[in-house]
User: What shape does this take?
Amino acid sequence: MLGALLDAERAAGRDVAYLYSDIHPVYYERLGFHAVPSRLFTLRADGLDGSPAGARPLDSADWAGVRRCFDALERARPWSFRRTPLVWDWMRKRWDAPLGSGSQPVRLGVRRGRSLVAYAIGRRVLRDDTFVVDDFAFDGEEGRAILPALLRSAAGDLRRVGGWLPPAPAREILARGSVRARKNAILMFAPLSSLGRAWWRENERAIGSARADCTWSSDHI
Assistant: This one.
């Protein structure tokens, strides 16, 4: 079925297909996919700036600011997945969905005047003593400077902050910690057209050697 789908997408003029593999990547490599680094990070919460961040819970009026912060950060990247209004709406519904027992949702932002300058979204997983990051972004130098303190505030009294290793330049915000390969949700690309193959040749080496991953955990749809 997947082979038939790729043939149909190739015939329709698509350039690249991607998926997140939860089985051995070799299966998909036989169909033309290429695995890229997919990692987890963990760091000590007390290694982050402990200064008051001035964080407050996000409300419905903040979502335009969340998108603005995210878009500002993404503009520094050579390429990324585009988040359409439909994707943002899906993410908000997922973030609003109830969590299992032992997990607490966290959606915090820092404002300066009426403008949101940084946000962090994730969940406190009590059994793991970890604040698991789903998404964070900032706009401008002030937002960049406050982000570590915002993550520390999101962690509360938990010992660790962790999650998928985020893309650059967000990855550079994180303090030093441990990084290890994920065993699931391994990102893979399949070039389908001459343009897609040219894009892959141009980016394969940089993607494979980067200290940051390609996507956010929130992009895992």
About this structure: The chain has six helices and ten strands. The chain has a mean pLDDT of 94.
